[in-house]
Amino acid sequence: MNVPRGARALGQWLLLGGTVGGVCGVASAVFLALLEWATEVRLEQGALVYALPVAGLVLGAVYGRWGASIRGGNNLVLDTVHEGDAVIPLRMAPMVLVGTVLTHLFGGSAGREGTAVQMGASLADQIAHRFRVAPDTRRDLLAAGIAGGFGSVFGTPLAGAVFGLEVVCVGRLGYEALLPALTASVVGDLVTRGLGIHHTVYPSPQALALTLPVLGKWLVFAAAVAAVAVAFIEGTHGLKKLLERYVPWLPLRMALGGLGVVGLWKLSGTDDYLGLGVPGILRAFQDVSLPGDAFAWKLVFTAVTLGAGFLGGEVTPLFFIGAALGNVLARLLGLPVDLGAAVGMAALFAAAANTPLALSLMAVELVGGAVLPHVAIVATVAYLLTGHRGIYPSQRIARRKLGGPLLDRIVSLRELHGTPRKP
């Protein structure tokens, strides 16, 4: 009996996408459980923060010895999607997991998405080679791995699927990978929740009618979000380049970064900017007395942590920065504080990662439909105003954001700025 080609393709993608989603879900569940443990231990034993420089020295030595081939992180994943290089090493998953947990145990300001994406892509690539799929199928599975990791670690399966497509190439969605990405993200989320993981519940803002005055306020809001996104991108990348130039030995570089975080911690006089910062995000939704410089403190803490080479991602710190910024802007512009925090939280990462569609969906999944259409407007405008830069220099671009002819070839953001790729 001949099975129609479409049915075979559907079955293949459900099988492969479901397999990727399953392993991503298990990996995210283990990661989130360990991350919760690390955060609780640090909160109980505050003096652990003083050991962050030592942790950096040890992590740097381990990565210098065994992690040279995976130090590209998310950028390695994106390069592999486009160039089909060698298999992403399986050791990326456990190494980035342990490294991120240790970063949080000792107080580094980092996130979760980088770890989830790298684990998902690493595991998806192993599955692709185990099944000996074609190169095009492998690329789609890598996108599914990104989606499965992102969707399961945040509990946002729709946003995870779109993120897996949108992050690969600025301004383009690879719909050929939509089915495996959606399957992996949904299955990954179901598995993570099925293993007893509970995600953060965010307050749901009340609906606000979109009027011309409100629209004008959102445009001002978007310009401020874009400015902070640029400051974060340039600050993190600039610090990383500066440290790599003057401190070429990774262990020492990370130890110095740890010293920097400890110094910032003592200078700020609070634990609020250490670790993920989820309590600070929730506070931004309701506290009208939130310090106006809270977003700037978290930005500097995170730039130092990630710029020095510590493991983790950018999403949750950017959520903190965006929510705190949104709280302040909402008070200044006469917008509801909870809505301002929700919009700022999603729009800042959308601008920094060049993923306005995924983050608009993510905002809906996290705080409810009342955030529309406001978050879509702010995220899109901020994405455009941020220009051709992002937290992932390996993102490709085929056409400039504001239009014009296609580029001669698809290039990475780093190439567009004339920065050569490191071997």
**SSE order in H/E notation?**
HHHHHHHEHHHHHHHHHEEH
Give the uncertain stretches in residue-range form. Answer: none
Helix content: 55-70%
Question: Whole-number radius of gyration?
Answer: 20 Å
Query: Sheet with the most strands?
Result: 3 strands, mixed
**Given the helix and strand composition, which structural class is it?**
mainly alpha
Shape: globular
**How big a fraction of the residues is strand?**
under 5%
Number of strands: 3
Spatial arrangement of strands, main beta sheet:
1-2-3
Give the termini distance in whole angstroms: 50 Å
- What is the helix tally? 17
Mean pLDDT: 92
Short description:
The chain has helices spanning 5-44, 52-66, 74-83, 92-105, 113-130, 135-154, 157-166, 178-194, 212-246, 250-268, 278-284, 294-307, 315-333, 337-353, 356-367, 374-385, 413-416; strands at 169-170, 396-397, 411-412.
Q: Any overview of this molecule?
A:
This protein has 423 residues and is mostly helical. It is 67% helix and 1% strand. It is built from 17 helices and three strands. It has helices spanning 5-44, 52-66, 74-83, 92-105, 113-130, 135-154, 157-166, 178-194, 212-246, 250-268, 278-284, 294-307, 315-333, 337-353, 356-367, 374-385, 413-416; strands at residues 169-170, 396-397, 411-412. It has a three-stranded mixed sheet. The longest helix is centred in the N-terminal third of the chain and has 40 residues, at 5-44. The termini are far apart. The model has no long low-confidence stretch (mean pLDDT 92).
